[in-house]
Amino acid sequence: MTKTQIHKFGGASVKDALSVQNLANILRNRLRNNFVIVVSAMGKTTNHLENIISLKLDRKDYSGNSTILKDFHLAICSELFPEGHVIFPKIENYFILLHHELNKSISKDNYDEYYDRIIGFGEILSSRIVMEYLCFQDLLVLWQDARELICTDSDFRFAKVDWERTRRNCQSQLKPKLEQFPVLTQGFIGADRAGRPTTLGREGSDFTAAILAGSLDAASVTIWKDVPGVLNADPKIFSGTTLFVELDYQQAAQMTYYGASVIHPKTIKPLANAGIPLFVKSFLDPEEPGTKIHARAKTESIPTFILKKDQILVSLKVTDFTFIEEKHIHQVYEQLQALKLHVNMLQTSAISISIVIDYELFKLEQLLTLLNQDFEIRYNEGLELLTVLYPNTDSVSKLLDGYELMLEQSTRNTVQLVRRLK
């Protein structure tokens, strides 16, 4: 039997009607049985939903924002479907369900669970529209709710996958469908054992593709992006970028660890464990080969630039005039883990610990509360963390032009710079 192929399309590839039509054209000569399509929310829908949640939390009116979001999806449908198509009442019904969820109470204590109940509507809306359009174009696909497949724990917003249950779900529910038809599902979302919606972390649709690939013993995963493949820097920020024709799993994982946005950080491990190749291709030039990530790749150690914005530098100094010991680092990491905060950079000195973390709503305030009895704490917000892999003198020398250097760390193959605009 032919092995399954997984194809994931991100928000940029379904951002408007033309993009959905382009997606259909890409799939037209590729679709077959044992073919899974994973889609993200359309365009900036996730950002809009986050804004609605923020307004709800601040007890402000969000109805106008919700109407804008509904009109955005209906406008796309109006360009794709004839008047009276079944998709229009379906979209209306989804927004009725969304408003029902939004009417429930929210607080700092239940924020993460509330977030997961709301934010997944973007993927549900997108997947319904794309599925209906493919069928309208005589490309018959089945719709599958990913929450019935991806089983997780109850760590809302950063849910961990129950691999055994997820594999069992995929083998029993998804595999029989794939023997008859291609299947379209959502990225980013799952459910815990009680059936409550969870998410896999921001931009987690790539990870969904890898989870399904591992659970179905797939032949390959292809991620469709608005770039030619994996580049040595984000072309929206840096000029003169270089395309990697191929990468091995280790180098790709290293890039994602430091924040390369082209692939979600958790994507590589399940594929590497199963020996499943990952292709990163451009939906703008679908016939170009893109980048292949696999075990036997011959890679070049060219300078690679990874920029993370909205960073916070937190410096913790012991207050009892002792030196920093291992117990202090354990104490800090214990609280970071409890708050689900990932450390992007760590530096210690004789009397202080410095960490760089992403901005997360409420999290800095909570971290300060947990640690201010034992540490004198200072912090700076609105910073950038620039990581350079395989740096050379020329590649690093100009990176601080117009910036103030807040913190620097170097190893044999990596330079990290925490900077802010002067």
TrEMBL record:
One BP annotation, GO: lysine biosynthetic process via diaminopimelate
InterPro entries for the chain: AceGlu_kinase-like_sf, Asp/Glu/Uridylate_kinase, Asp_kinase, AsparK_Bifunc_asparK/hSer_DH
Aspartate/glutamate/uridylate kinase domain span: 3-282
Domain of life per record: Bacteria
Biological source species: Algoriphagus chordae
SUPFAM superfamilies attached to this UniProt entry: Carbamate kinase-like (SSF53633)
Cellular component terms (Gene Ontology): cytosol
Record's protein name: Aspartokinase
Enzyme Commission number(s): 2.7.2.4
UniProt-listed Pfam families: AA_kinase
GO molecular function terms attached to this record: aspartate kinase activity; ATP binding
Catalytic activity field: L-aspartate + ATP = 4-phospho-L-aspartate + ADP
